[in-house]
Amino acid sequence: MVIHNRSILVMFSKTIYFSFLICILLHGFYQANANPRAPKGTDEIKTYLFPGTGFFIKNRDPYDDHEAKGWFLEAIELQRADKLSDALKLFEKFTKRRSDLIINFENSPILVAPESIFRAAMIREKQGDWKKAFDHLVIIARAYVKYDFERISSALMQLAEKIATEDLPKKWGVIPRLRSGADDRARLNQIVKLSRGPKFAPRALMVLAEISLKDDKSDDATYALERLINFYPKHYLSEKAYFMLAEINRSLISGPSYDQGATLDALNYYEDYLIFYSEGIVQGLDEELSDFEIRKNEAIERKRLAILGRQQMRENLAMSQLEIGRYVENYGKYFLLHWKKLGNQPALQFYNQAITTAPESNAAREAEKSVAKLRNE
Q1: Where in the chain are the domains?
Q2: Closest among 96, 159, 154 to 132, alpha carbons compared
Q3: What's the mean pLDDT in 115-123?
Q4: Spatial contact of 266 and 313, defined as CB atoms under 8 Å apart
């Protein structure tokens, strides 16, 4: 009985000891990751671009140059031997901690860390892990501003478009990878924020708008297109953006009996489109000739549709003004102040607006009849 109780005591002591040890380790982990600038008593955790190495206490110091050079050269040899999994393990070490080492490689100076991460991204893409490849490229764009940004931006854009529009490769050839429209839009927004010029941001905004429309997110699409025309008004994609904004607002119209805010917005965008591109379009600075020829044919069709859309918006507004005029004529005396003094003037005002807005519409002809009737009274 005494032995049994002693065993229980020993087990209880060990449990307390291990619990205490785990608490100490967890506290060290929290202290290693907590934001030192956060006010006392808050639970704010600082996020790092480089997560660091180590389990409980993270080491985020830059790698030793000798160690970084050895990993890079070994990984290159493994990559050339087509041992991609082994090469990937070494290349991805540089996604954990920073390295600013520059070495001469193939007769030119090279930044070891961003080159390693770029090669890791290309291997990930080849293996079908496009999302991981995109995340690697983002690290380069944010952490290594001296690296070839056009190379990174182009790769980011291609990957974002592939992830958003193509079938995702299955993991290990078996497990399906799930697509998220919100994540797709977030990636394209990242490209817009990272871009340092008008070459990639407008394209990212256009793809973002198209994806948002596909996901029935018209507000997100409108926001992306408005950023495009406001920040990059001279970019060749602005032509398509104006037309898309008009079409989005047109799709929100409920009819002449309802609020005409969307009708006015659509009309304004159609008119802007027809004014700005009345003489056709020109080739963009970074636009391929073959792409320009396709866009030129599409722009001809867009212009034809914009003329029709403008006329339809005017007719819708005229019909709305006609309906308001009729309502004021019939019921104005119940809600207008000084309606006897005003007489038919409020109704005539709306009828005249209908005639001016769309002179050749059916609504204008009906308004003309109502004007003639009121003036003969």
Answers
A1: 10-47
A2: 159
A3: 96
A4: yes
